[in-house]
Amino acid sequence: METFPVLLIAIPLGGAFLVPILYKAWKRLAEIVAGLCLATVLALSIYLAFFLVPGKPLVYLFGNWPVPLGIAFAVDKLSSLMLLIVSILAFFSYLFATRYMDQFTGAGKFYTLYLLMLVGMNGVVMTGDLFNMFVFMEIAGLAAYALVAFGTKPKELEAGFKYMVMGEIASLMILLAIALIYAATSTLNLADLSRAFATMDKTPGFYFVVILLMFGFSLKAGLVPFHFWLPDAYPSAPAPVTAVLSGVFTKALGVYAMARILFNVYGFSRASSPEVFNALLILGLVSIVVGGLLALPQKDYKRLLAYSSISQIGYIVLALGIGNEFALIGAFAHILSHSLGKGLLFLTSGSVVYRVGERDITKFTGGLGKQMPWTSLSYNLGALSVAGMPPFLGFFSKLFIILGAVKAGFIVPAVVAGLFAVVTLGYLLKITNKVFWGKEGIKGIKESPFVMVFTMVCLVVLLVAGGAFFFWLKPHLLQPAADVLLRGTEYADIVFRIGAGG
Q1: 3-class DSSP state of 189
Q2: How many structural domains is the chain composed of?
C-alpha cells in the first residue's frame, strides 16, 4: 500500500503520454490503454477506501525526505473517499466516451487530456503540500479548459476561453495567498502550516489570506456569486467531460480543497471561528436558492443541469458551514450521491444528443422514452436521486444535512434545504415531460449503443445500492471522512508522527 499514492499519479500520467503515440498506430489500442489505466486507478482507490485504517493515513515521502523537509502525499479516510468517488465517475464516463467520442476527431488528444485531468484531481486530493496542490489544480484546470473547447465550435471556444479566464483568476488568488503564507511561515507543508497557524496572531492580514483562499476555492467550485463560467462551460463540453466536471472536478478542486484547508490546516471549527462558518453557510444557502431558481426557466437540457449543479454544490457547502457531525456526514454523502446522480444525468443528455442532435427541450415533442427506454429510465431514476427522493442515496445525503441544520439550531437553512429539494424535482421533471414522456415520439430514433446504455445503468445501480446500503456506507466510508474534519489539526500531528522519521 505504501506505493499506492504515487501509482495513482504515475499510472494515468504514463497513460497520458502513451495514448497519443499508440493512437497513431491503432485507435482502439489507445482507448484500451486509457481504459486499463482508469480501471487500475479505480481498483487501487477501492482498496484504499475500504482497507485504509482510520487514524492511520498512508504517507508517501518523495526521496525519503522527512516531513516537513520533503514533498509528501498523505492519504487518510477523507482522501480515500474522494479518490474513490473521482475514480468511479472517471472510469464510467470513459466507458461512455468510447462510443460517444466517435463523432469527434482527435480522440487521441481527448484521452490524453482526460487522463491529465485525472492526474490533477488525484494530486489535489493526496498532496500534503500547499504549492503542489496549486500545481495539480493547474494540471487539472488546463486539461479541463481544453476539453470544454474540444468541439472547436465558436460557442465552445468562447466557453473554454471564459472558463480559462475565470479559472486563472481563481488560481491567481490562491497563488497570492500561497505567497503570503510562505512569507509569514517559511513553509508550505500542510502539516507544518497547521502548527504554524496555531501560534500565529489572528490579525487582519491572517484573515485576508483566508478570504483569498475562500475566493479562489469558491470560484473553482462554481458557487454563487462566482458561478458565471459554469453555465457556459458545462453545455459546451462533450457529455463525458461534463459528467466529470459536474460530478467530481468542482468538488475536488473547490469543495475538498476548501474543507481540507479550513478544517485541517487552519483548524477552524464553528465554536472557534463562527464568522468563517457563517460565510460558508451563506455561500451555500445563496447557491442553493439562486442555482435552483435559475434552473427553473432554462430550455437547454445541459444548461438546466448546469444550474442544478450550482444548487447542489450549495448543499455541500451549507453542510460544511453547519459543521457538526450529522451535517458533515451528509456533506460527504451528497458529494457521492451528486457525483453519481448528476454525472448520470449529463450522460443521459449525451445519449439524447448522440441520437437526436438537439438540446433545446422545447423542440422535443415528448415520447422519446419509447424509442430510448433505457436512457429515459436512467434519467428519471437519476433525477429522483438528485432531488433527494427515497429510497435513493440522494435522499439520505439531504436528510443528514437537514438533520445537522436542525440539531445546530439553523431552522431557516433546514427549511430552505427541504424546500429546494422539491424545487429540484420540479425543474428536473421539465426534461421528463418535454423529452421522455408523452405519446408522440421521433421517428427513426433508436436507443444509444450498448456501452453507453451499460454505463448509465451501472450508475443507476450504484445510486440504488447506495440508498439500500447507506447505513453500511455510513460507518465504513462517510463517518471516517467526517471524523477527519471534526478532529481538525489532529491531521498534522498524525502526518508528523508517521512521516517525520523518513
Answers
A1: strand
A2: 1
